[in-house]
From TrEMBL:
Keywords: Stress response. Pfam families: HSP20. It comes from Saccharomonospora marina XMU15. Belongs to the small heat shock protein (HSP20) family. This is Molecular chaperone (Small heat shock protein). SUPFAM superfamilies: HSP20-like chaperones. InterPro entries: A-crystallin/Hsp20_dom, HSP20-like_chaperone, Small_HSP. Signal peptide: none annotated.
Length: 149
């Protein structure tokens, strides 16, 4: 039921923390897509921080229980659509991607996504067959008792 992240992505993030950049000198340390994930009742909720990203540039898909979130932040342009002279650039630009491996007990066909104030929120329901249920037990006397499964 728990969601796991890609171990190689976690290794790359650890490398970024120690050396200041990913393998091959790629994106800077701040170029990660931070997230929080937790269970709330019968669903998992995942928040991705994507400040300054246009909702149209966000792509979320699920294939074989792998959820992939891709987003793109473009460089700053002036009102005529031309690049501006950059003085300081601490916010990374380009394409960001993050993958989560979802357990078989989640209902990947009913994921809901919303984007507000730079935060992408995904709600992933627990599959009906994975929810706790009561199972009736009959005793030798024919008496029925209910217990929690």
């Amino acid at each position: 039921m728990l969601m796991r992240t890609d171990p190689f992505q976690a290794l790359d993030r650890l490398t970024q923390q120690w050396f200041g950049s990913g393998f091959g000198g790629g994106l800077s340390r701040s170029a990660v897509m931070p997230m929080d994930a937790y269970r709330s009742g019968d669903e998992f909720v995942v928040h991705f921080d994507l400040p300054g990203v246009s909702p149209e540039s966000i792509d979320v898909d699920v294939q074989n229980n792998v959820l992939t979130v891709k987003a793109q932040r473009t460089t700053v342009l002036d009102k005529n659509g031309e690049k501006v002279e950059t003085i300081i650039s601490e916010r990374p630009t380009g394409t960001f991607s993050r993958q989560l491996f979802l357990g078989d007990t989640l209902d990947t066909g009913n994921i809901q996504a919303g984007y507000d104030a730079g935060v992408l929120t995904l709600r992933i329901p627990v599959a009906e067959q994975a929810k706790p249920r009561k199972i009736a037990i009959t005793s030798g006397t024919g008496e029925r008792q209910a217990i929690n499964a």
